[in-house]
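Problem statement: downstream parser choked on a complex file, so we are re-checking the raw output for the S-adenosylmethionine run. The parser issue turned out to be on our end (a line-ending mismatch), but while we're here, posting the original submission so the record is complete.
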Amino acid sequence: MSRKSRHAAAGRDDFSHERPHDPRHDSRHEEPAAPRPASMRTQLRLHDVMLKKSLGQNFLDDPNLAQKIVRAADVQPGQKVLEIGPGSGALTDKLLAAGARVLAVELDRRLIPLLNANFAADPRLQVVHGDILRMPRETLERFADGDKVKVVANLPYYNASQILFRLAEWRGMLSMAVLTLQKELVERMSASPGVKDYGILAVRMQAVADVRALFMLPSSVFFPQPRVDSQAVRLDYSLGRVPEDLDEKAFAKCVKAAFAARRKMLSNTLGNLYGAENARRAMTECDIDPTLRAERLTVENYFCLTRKLGPQKHERRAAAD
Ligand code: SAM
């Protein structure tokens, strides 16, 4: 299903008319959590909601694992949490019980009444209907209001990589994220140089955060059960390594260029895009063996190459015209 039709199915978003700030959200005005919701499947039946594969709707149906995920994020009373795709509220429930103030962004409009029925009495929860990938940065800025926000989510798997890159862009407002993802994605994010899974995702994610693979979640804890295995992962954005003066767009291009032909020697791959002489010089200045392949380089090697390579050939030509 395309992004457009997914959107049509989910209805227009509500980012433009979010709830105004409610002073009861201040940590000084903590209120007791709302009563805990009934079984997830019963609620879906009551609200006549059939789950959609196209929206990545595999809901967590195990309160102990929901608790384990929230515990991994070490949520303290009064802390702000962005939850992406609350679904019927399995994680929301545990986040509120831990005392968090939650901004929950859900694409599927059919789930909003269900979430409101479960948690509307809790002033610490703000449910917004919309696509997280279209959420304006200002929405998070307003919620953060100068504090660091944690992200806790069981992400929809169909667009998880895009969401990871969006969180990387927002990392200045985030302290950390605990996410449930497809196991293969966690392996690719946390891979070390030299292993098969090490690629663009590993370099880009490990540049912005300390990435730590956590526990596995068997398919049986989800409804409906996904065909893939799932794993939790923790990203600590406060431990990111991106140097302040790095041109991040150039870094992204450099990493993409390097892995475009991962079986080839890096000097050849980079030479095609940045000029052979320029690529050789940059690798020497960064102390990188020119016969290496992209998967052997560390994140720091890529920072150095980004600086030394400068723009790609076509960018130089465009600038000269
Ligand atoms: N958090 C719930 C749980 O653990 O049971 C639901 C998780 S389910 C894997 C993913 C959720 O993300 C679904 O509720 C789905 O509707 C929602 N979703 C899908 N795409 C989204 C998007 N682009 N923005 C916000 N929510 C999205």
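For whoever reads this later: The two ends are 41 Å apart (CA to CA).
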